[in-house]
Amino acid sequence: GNPLHLSSLNHISLVCRSVEESTDFYQNVLGFVPIRRPGSLKFDGSWLNGHGIGIHLLQSEDPESMRKKKVINPKDNHISFQCESMGMVEKKLNEMGIDWVKQRVEEGGIYVDQLFFHDPDGFMIEICNCDDMPVVPLAGNVVRSCSRLNLQ
């Protein structure tokens, strides 16, 4: 069921040490596009859009108290993006000097590769070829891929 009649993910909000640094990261590493924020918002921030979702970056009121980057742990909170070529992503991350960790998941002879890395504030990003693995609901029919799962 879909008791709230949700239709899609709209955005995620992330508190940042530096909105400028994070905007640069999401724009130049992940390909998001800055969009206009409502003028009624009375705090520093940046809105970006891309890949079917929005990212709202909010300036921390106390940047020094924010956690520092930690070890890349694939079991930590993260957001995941589907990609066209894992090899190209690895190459680009290396060229940009971004540290990453690779993990492989196998199910029934299907392999999914995952790359994990942090944004400037330590929030984890995953890039994967997850659509290669069918989504199998615990009840019902097989769905072709996560990006095609309909909650209606």
Automatic annotation (TrEMBL):
CDD domains with a match to the protein in the record: VOC_like
One Pfam family named in its UniProt record: Glyoxalase
Span of domain VOC: 8-130
Highest taxon of source: Eukaryota
SUPFAM superfamilies: Glyoxalase/Bleomycin resistance protein/Dihydroxybiphenyl dioxygenase (SSF54593)
Name used for this protein in its record: VOC domain-containing protein
Protein source organism: Genlisea aurea
Lineage: Eukaryota, Viridiplantae, Streptophyta, Embryophyta, Tracheophyta
